[in-house]
Amino acid sequence: MRKVAVVAIGGNSLIKDPAHQTVPDQYAAAHETCIHIAGMIEQGWDVAIGHGNGPQVGFILRRSELARHELHEVPLDFCGADTQGAIGYMLQQNLYNEFRRRGMQKQAATVVTQVLVDRNDPAFKNPTKPIGSFMSEEDARKRRELEGWDVIEDAGRGWRRVVPSPLPVRVIERDAVKELIDAGFVVITVGGGGIPVIEDEQGNLVGVAAVIDKDYASSLLATSIGADLLLISTAVEKVALNYGKPNQRWIDQMTVAEAKQYMAEGHFAPGSMKPKIEASIWFLERGGKEALITNPENIERALEGKTGTRIVP
Q1: Within the chain, which residues score under 50 in pLDDT?
Q2: What distance in Å separates the CA atoms of residue 123 and residue 126, rounded to the nearest whole number?
Q3: For this structure, is 238 an active site residue?
Q4: What span, in angstroms and rounded, lies between the C-alpha atoms of 240 and 249?
């Protein structure tokens, strides 16, 4: 029996730091992560890969804004689709080359993935996710009046557009992903949390200007395809209590109950570790066996139980 894992790779897997943001830089960073994912597959795992796309969507939006005197702007859901294709290409090619180097008969395929959200999700009444570049207050007000944007003043740095971040409900292309995994493919899917879509009154899908957290979407995917493991790859080797403080303590393993307690005590920052812990709990409470959080270079060692933080039911 082969084991199935969903691996959610974070932004650090593509952009290491502000000095390395170009496409060749991202390709090189993806190469490093793909070495460790290939190692995992060589150990006998079937893998679906979810990934972040926040910076890449930001770059497209910025280019779009700068060129709007020449060309139409790109809607947010199309930015999501564009980045799924481009990041998928980077991962596919790196995996192909790594499989070839190791003599492995494997292939990767990217599925441009839509993820259904509830059009009545409370997030639509309270947009909180900043996207795109900073604007002056005058430009922000103009965009709000002319285009209906929600805008906020962002920590004294200028004004930004904010969009909703609803919870994922269903992976539209789930069956295609499952069939590909069963056929032995590595599947790159739910990129950037998936392209958020809602159902209209007739049941037709309509793209919306929103952002789905990629860890939540990867968790939902893991549940819906019956994965054995949710592996969340991030910037740190392990999860810590009192992170960054003198009394910081690394965690090797915790139960769902312990994770909930630590979260209630405020140990995990929103927008950072908290969604990763919540996504892990979500997976385990819906029948998942275990979740694992570590950084890309430690994936193989974490799977062997030598590092990383395991979360169990």
Answers
A1: none
A2: 5
A3: no
A4: 5
Q: Give the C-alpha separation, 15 to 27, whole Å.
A: 9
248-296: per-residue pLDDT in tens?
999 999 999 999 999 999 999 888 899 999 999 999 999 999 999 999 9
CA 303 to CA 41: how far, in whole Å? 11
Q: Which amino acid is at 221?
A: L
Which is the catalytic residue, given 52, 54, 192, 214? 214
Residue 106, pLDDT score: 97
What is the C-alpha to C-alpha distance for residues 9 and 232, in angstroms, rounded to an integer? 6
Residue 214 annotated among the catalytic residues of the structure: yes
What three-state secondary structure class fits 49? strand
Q: Coil, strand or helix: which one is 58?
A: helix
Report the amino acid identity of residue 192.
Answer: G
Q: Which fold has domain 3-112+173-312?
A: Carbamate kinase (3.40.1160)
260 is catalytic: no
Rounded to whole angstroms, how far apart are CA atoms 111 and 271?
26
Q: Which residue among the candidates 106, 129, 178, 238 is catalytic per the annotation?
A: 129
Active site includes 245? no
Q: pTM surpassing 0.90? A: yes
DSSP 221-279: HHHHTT-SEEEEE-SSSSEEESTTSTT-EEESEEEHHHHHHHHHTT-S-TTTTHHHHHH
> What are residue 249's phi and psi, to 5 degrees?
-140, 125
Instruction: Identify the pLDDT of residue 232.
Output: 97
- Give the pair of three-digit tokens for residue 12: 């650090």
Bridge partners of 116, per DSSP, are 170, 197
Tokens of 5: 């894992």
The answer to whether 11 is a known catalytic residue is yes
The DSSP letter of residue 73 is: P
